[in-house]
Amino acid sequence: LIRSSGEENVGGIAALGKAMLLLQRIGLDVVQAREQALTARALRGLAQIPGLEVYGVKSPDAPRFAWKGGVIVFAMQSMLAPEVAQKLAARGMGVRAGCHCAHLLVKQLLKIPPPLAQFQRGLVTLLPKLSLPGLTRVSLGLENTEAEIDCLLEGLREIAQERRVPGRRDRTAPQVNVQQQLEASARAATQSIFRRRCSSHVEKGCHER
Question: Are 30 and 200 in contact (CB under 8 A)?
Fold first, then answer.
């Protein structure tokens, strides 16, 4: 019934309401401060990786950083975004790769002229599994930790090193049990969020007194 014409997505509406309620209890100021701290740490580390280019706000010292969310988009020189994402996934990290439903903008950022972009679309029609140029995106949120940022940076440094050594294959990447890691991450995220929620309540209670 949920996919029938005219039916409301009751489950989605209820989940969205619960999520908004939780964010309200934690405090959006707490969420913003956490995201900006993680984003600043990530940007400083990404700036030190050879062959990696960040798009948009590149430094926590930039004037526009105060309005930046926890999303960072980047490209690795001489390596397609899906390959970067695959190598990070082998290390237990999930990112998104491609044009992110913003094809015109991504093609412009990558300086791909319209005729070439049209040719690429034709190729994808013939070869659906073909990887095309795009960008890699990492999204940081309240549930992420400094240790996870450091793992991301270390993984990208290894990938950049592999790119600079011709013929080298990434044989040293640890094999990760994704299901176990997802379950562990979910438990850690839940504990972290509720700790911040409780901390936020305590601070607000102190101010009210």
Answer: yes
